[in-house]
Amino acid sequence: MKKFYPSLVITLTLLLIIVTGCKSLPNIDYPSNPNETLQGHLITKERALEIKSQYDSLRLDLFEEKLKDVYNNDFEDTQFVWISLDKMKAYLKYLERIQRKNRDKNVSGIRIYFAAYPDRTNEKYPGNQTSFMVPTVKTNFNDPDFNIMNHLPFVIQPYAPNDPIKGNFIPLENLMINYKKEDRMALYNKTIGLQKAAIRSSQAISSSTAAATQKNNETNTILNEFNLAPPPKDDE
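The chain above was modelled as a monomer; its predicted structure follows.
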């Protein structure tokens, strides 16, 4: 009579579950060779200095006197922003978590916007230029002439309060340029409508889910508050 080893069966079952679960997760490892992903996007120092010089001559020099008139004669605008590697990694991991929670959507990239802080006393850098990052969701618009427009900036409207990163991706229309904007939004809204219908047919939406949707709660996805240089001058 063959012996039965329950502990061995349990161990093998757990290993099978772990292996199966790992296979179901998306591969989020970074490539060992950066050129696999960054081919054609890493530039030489000469190219960097060339386009920085062009920016200085056509932007900084052009607006310097105007900015001093608007703010004060000592005003010096931002020349670069800095973000720590740890914070950048944390942001990318945050977006990867959002993707894993929303497998029916495609977190496709990041938009970087130019901005300026309001000129008021409670601001740390009043009037200074800054930037912020917004993740994008891939749409089915598929414009062959301007592919970048196939990706819309978004925040999240959660399905339930206890799971803030799982929900509807709400496009930030005020951050979208007018290029075929109505067509892009109409197609995206149609896609969202089909997704909601699929969710309702596959599972009942709980009362907490419905309440969260009705309240229009939003989960932040936008990254800002970088370090700016040159720093503001101290008051004398």
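The chain is about 40% helix and 20% strand.
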